Queue: 4 jobs
Job 1
Amino acid sequence: MWTLFNGFTPMFAGMIGLVLTAVLILGAAIAARVSSTAFRYVFWFALGLTAAVFVKNMETWGVYPLLALIAALVAQTFALKGGMKTLHLLRMSLVEGAQQALPVGVACAIVGVIIGVLTLTGAASSFAGFILGVGEKSLFLSLLLTMLVCLVLGMGIPTIPNYIITSSIAAPALLKLGVPLIVSHMFVFYFGIMADLTPPVALAAFAAASIAKESAMKIGIKAVQIAIAGFVIPYMAVYSPELMLQGDWTFATVAYIVFKAVLSISLWGAAAIGFLLGPLNMVERGFAAIAAFMLVAAIPLTDEIGFGMSVVFVVWHVIRRRRLAPT
């Protein structure tokens, strides 16, 4: 994280993370054999200081000093009793890491072909231009269109390729409409993931169907009903970037928007499920949905109206529950 925030490339940051992980594993094996607590602290301090110096002078010395440090730790670990188990653990970690990277690499290669086709055919630019055209008249309609496209693009695709496809096609258009970079990427990624529970594909629903011995479509529809509040949060992040610590945020504004988001989620959930402190009738559910919508809408006075309706809804529901409670 430190290397990323200081302007180094992700490749460099990942390499440093792997190297220091290897140093940590080998160092832990050696430190475990040191009986004195004081010497153990001295060992960790010296090892951390040495690694920090090597990382700090990476541009001058290159990666070779770190590799030499790992080689020295490997030699020391090899001489310890039980050190072979540690070396085997390190080796298998490298093997497992390579195995986990293969599907990602293949997926990225396939996604690269898809992105290339969309770019060469002009489909991506046409889609972006259409969103920009709609966004000039209504940002909400462009967000709604982007959500629908991401739900289609994310169907049946693993997480990483899902993000690559949606971010390369839909996110740039939102960025040009003034949506902050991180918010635009998270918006498309969020709805790309939501495709796992959105019919007709809904891979998560199909997995649950085999366990519950029930119709996958029925489970998918119920999953959307339960998660309906989750479809609202990305819109709140766009209209209130403070939710993702973007823009001119303060602790007060972040606390306010988080409170508003939690209240809106609660109201949406109650309206969708039909239960809060007890069962809700259709009038209560409709009232709760309108109150939640007012909290989401970024129009003057909607927050005040939403908070007022929320208070009325809670008081109304509590009084109604008490009246219906058996004496």
Job 2
Amino acid sequence: MPNNAVTAAARFSAAPMMDWTDRHCRFLHRQLSRQALLYTEMVTAPALIRGGAVHLLDHSPAEYPLALQLGGSNPSELARAAKLGANAGYQEVNLNCGCPSDRVKSGTFGAILMRDAALVADCVAAMRDAVDVDVTLKCRIGVDEQNPDEVLPKFLAKIIAAGCERVTIHARKAWLQGLSPKENRDIPPLDYRLVLRMKEYFPNLHISINGGITSLEQVEAFLAAGLDGVMVGRAAYHQPADIFCSADRRIFGASDETSVEDAIMAMLPYIENHLSSGGRLHQITRHMLGLFAGRAGARLWRRTISEGSAKNGADGELVYSALSQVMAITNETNAVI
């Protein structure tokens, strides 16, 4: 049975991003938007099942609504990993069929699974049998020499038959030979029209679009065009205030929105708790560098935080001081205007 609350949150989501969307990043993003759906970094099923790395599932209920993204290609392992995730409290388990990195290819999961829709369907079915939370999927429009117009509809039909009711489509092909993971995020051309056609072909499938989306205006346009959701990746990380602060009002119809300043103040107790548990400041603040992107004081903020956070004894006072300096610049700018 679909989780209606998570499905509603999937109207706007932040993409799972390796080395970026860890629990500290997600807690920050949750201070900026109460309603957007957040995703973990990809966690591999072998790491959980064979490696016993259950610490990778650590999170806080304060991050909800929250989805766990799994990587793998063994239906039995994925089912067991999905069960661990559901038992840990995740409200959705997402199967990665879109990542083009070398380590993903060598593990026979990620984008290379676009070549084997039957195996993906078996994985989805096994995961659905194992858990009561939503089982979803993130994919590309195709890989290498595949013709997306032919491959994608067949791929989606297979996973729908296996019980998948919600999918996010990165509107680029992945080239597993010849392009690096970084190049795969930019070089293959975007085909938004194909994703929109998939919604026409499969009207009952909840489809979110991903890839090259950098503003809430684009998010609103895709929703108006009939898609069920929009997932934002790098822009949500590098320009989090631009992407998240107005999202609850503009995308979900909330009456208010969050300010960067309030979000930073809300982070201070979290920072102190992390430090008291033996953590380091830069583990959190590395995700905060883009908070003032495009605003007066952005350079001062980045420099102060990046240079100060790695020093011994650095704590929340550094963040508060940097915020105070930026606010002074903002006030001066507004006074001139």
Job 3
Amino acid sequence: MKNRTIHTVIILGILSLVTILTVQLLWMEKTIRIQETNIAIQAKADSLNLKEFTQQVEVSLKKVLKQINLNTNVNYEVYGAVKELKTNHFTVDIQEDLQPYYLETLLKKEFDNQNIHQDFIYGIYDCFTDSIVLGSLIKYTKDSLYASVPDKTHGITPEKLNLKKDGHYFTVYFPDLKIKSIKSETLISPWIYICVILLLILIFFGFSLSIIIRQNRLSEIKNDFINNMTHELKTPISTISLSSEMLMRLEVSDFEKVNKYAGIIFKENKRLEQQVERVLNVAKLDKDQVVLDKELFNVHDVLQEVKDNFELHHLSKGGSIKLDLLATVSDIHADPVHITNVIYNLLDNAVKYCEGNPTIIIKTSNERNGLKIEIIDNGIGIKKENQRDIFEKFYRVPTGNIHNVKGFGLGLYYVKLILDAHQGKIEVKSNIGKGTSFTLFFS
């Protein structure tokens, strides 16, 4: 029922996210179309403003030319005298020389009248001397309207202007043409915030989903641990209870049976004590609390001792352990007791998770300035999706129809804990039905 509820929440959450993303994509598509329309309107507005600017400049220059006519009593041809070389560059034909300051005064006045608020540079060309005189940069400011910037021409030279060399004329150049256009409203900015909010929602949902899945998984592991612990503790308790009952029914003179049942009670009591001790020590199995008593010792000696003891106590019904000790440097600085326990745990798993007679190979070699130990078995194997979880506390690999494998799910957790405490590494490779290989590396 609990799993069904979690699955329902996950499905509803995913459907909600898909709906939100679909609506967002539709809105974004609409926004893009609006943006494209706005860009087209903007381009059209800019084009109109450039045309308006050109017209204003031409009107100003024609008025300047008319003012020159009035002051010099020379009848210059106004129409056709103003020529646009570029959007920001104009020339005006004249018939004689002009005083630069006089021309500058007229240009400032007419530009201001036409609301042309642009910086400009002017020049006067004399065909007789084949020379052009450029004035200083005339800068527009709100306070002083137009002000001359002495000794600055904004990097403009007559060569850069590419001016013609026939007749008298003056030229006006706008080096930093800035057209003020009407900004069309854009909807992209609000959508950026909406996208950020939706992204945060997605992140929050993903984080919440991962927590729900993890909590559900931890709950399953906890239930599995409780079931295993109950089974492990119930068996010796039942045996002790039965043996005690049989003792109470026996006659005092039957010493043989009394000793038999007393021995069973003692043995099961020790087993129960060990199981309870293992449960109580779970909290102490923490990386920061592992106390190591390191010393320099030969791993090959430890492996040989473990092999002999394990064969004597665990392989009496069949099976074998083969040592393939190829490491030329087999001394490590570690805790021999914990390292021995690590090897015992891995060998114990190799025997428990084997359907036939276990065949175990222990190899050593030197790699990357360290010692590598491989423990290879012919057991039932571990599925790929379970391999990443086998080192977690209380986790036990599902064994299908095999129900006679006992344990609390602490063996491999302890192995990983000890390897981490020694700054070592452990890797697992496994194929279903072909066995498992654990690789330990000590630097």
Job 4
Amino acid sequence: MDTILFIVFATVAVVCAFNLVFQTHPISSALSLIGVMGSLAVLYLLLGAEFIAMAQVIVYGGAVMVLFIFVIMLLNAGTEKASSKSWFAQIAGLPLLLAFVAVLAFLIRSALPGALAVPTRAVEFGSWVGGSAEEIGKLLFTQYLLPFEVISILILIAILGAVVLAQKEID
């Protein structure tokens, strides 16, 4: 049953991700991103990480996406206009992308040879206790305090940038 649910929600996440990229209207893209976030929350539940799944829904699916939609509406972003691509980009784009991904995968694989193995163990639904709120909180405010604060400052800078851009357009 877990395998079927994984395949279904992984497929939903991938389809929503492609829809996110190929949409021309920003609100539709934001709604596709909500679909990706919801699918990821279900995948976290399948892994037994209930706290992270609920944080995914509440923080990312709720608060962050409301902020994104608010900024999109504040900027009054309309439908994206199609641009004419150069002939070189049309012909060489996909092969260059595939070559870049192959080189990047090779570099990651050579730099981290043992880190790519994922340990597997038989875990029943809800029996894994490694992701409790208490353990995550202790790690977040001890070992990962600096990255946590840096990310919060970056988010604040992004919000201020959106406000500045919106004010320039209003003037």
